[in-house]
Design goal:
Layout: H1 2-16, H2 21-41, H3 47-61, H4 65-83, H5 107-115, H6 120-132, H7 136-140, E1 152-155, E2 164-167, H8 170-183, H9 203-216, H10 227-239, H11 244-251, H12 256-263, H13 266-270
Antiparallel strand pairs: 1-2
Helix pairs in contact: 1-2, 2-4, 3-4, 6-8, 6-9, 6-10, 11-12
């Protein structure tokens, strides 16, 4: 009971720190699982016990790298809170995720797939997801007031809780304007069943709608299928001449290396453009002689 009370206090502290509700729940979940395993196996609530538990997750349970790393970060944060300091060595590090070939749709494929989404509200929502390169959670948290009169849009629920303002392309602006005229949302822009002040549109609803549209064109996507629109957005932006720093800001990446992972083969994206521009090609031959 003592440890359960401590875990609840840990959860409340995470909430006070302003972590997103989903992150709080995940950290609480893995912290509780770790504590229960340590007590059942006779380990102490310390770095040695946590190292044993993480080893158990990797070797016995067989967590894949992405799941293991989520558990690792959650449990390490819980232990730092429990001990009151974070200067300890677990002897275990996050796992390196294997590179996965990402499906990239051509612009024509994106248009055909989005055009195959039968429900108009969902078709608009997915089109905005692609047109701005948003994460699914960012789209679902979009509010009417986030669309600013100066041609910018506020993305308020970025990864890590960091908001950002990005330019609103004319095509996306027109989509949002026509949607508002039809459904008149007052709070959240995309709501369940199009009710103006209703609950937010479920992520699974969008996932299922896009998956059906992809399958209708013989395209199958493993995992989060809405992410294929974000990857395609990044490729299409660079191919159209968008610079990497601007793309990094638009995607909400803290590190430019994350943006580069989205792009894959930069040589293919560059097309016929030279890797380095000849800046002295037009200088008169005798100028520096």
């Amino acid at each position: 009971m003592k440890h359960e009370d401590e875990l609840i206090a840990f959860k409340r502290d995470l909430q006070v720190q302003g972590l997103r509700p989903r992150t709080v729940e995940v950290y609480f979940y893995y912290g509780r699982r770790c504590v229960r395993w340590l007590l059942a196996e006779g380990y102490g609530l310390d770095a040695v016990g946590v190292r044993a538990y993480l080893t158990h997750l990797a070797s016995d349970v067989g967590y894949v790298a992405s799941t293991f790393n989520i558990a690792f970060n959650a449990i390490r944060r819980w232990l730092a809170w429990h001990l009151g300091y974070d200067d300890f060595d677990l002897g275990v590090k996050p796992q390196r995720r294997r590179a996965v070939a990402r499906r990239i749709l051509s612009r024509g494929e994106v248009q055909r797939v989005l055009g195959s989404v039968t429900t108009r509200r969902l078709r608009v929502a997915l089109s905005v997801l692609y047109g701005l390169g948003l994460r699914l959670t960012e789209l679902r948290c979009l509010q009417v007031q986030d669309i600013e009169p100066d041609g910018m849009i506020l993305i308020r629920d970025g990864k890590g809780g960091h908001p950002r303002r990005i330019a609103l392309p004319v095509g996306v602006r027109d989509l949002l304007r026509n949607y508002w005229r039809r459904w008149r949302p007052t709070g959240l822009f995309f709501t369940a069943n199009g009710i103006p002040d209703g609950k937010g549109l479920a992520g699974t609803t969008l996932q299922d709608a896009l998956r059906e549209a992809l399958q209708a064109h013989g395209l199958r996507q493993k995992g989060t299928c809405t992410h294929v629109l974000r990857h395609s957005f990044a490729h299409h932006q660079v191919a159209a001449g968008c610079d990497l720093r601007s793309l990094q800001h638009c995607l909400g990446h803290k590190n430019l290396n994350t943006t580069l992972q989205y792009l894959g083969d930069l040589d293919a994206l560059r097309g016929d453009r030279p890797p380095v521009v000849d800046l002295l090609g037009d200088v008169p031959a005798g100028l520096f002689s």
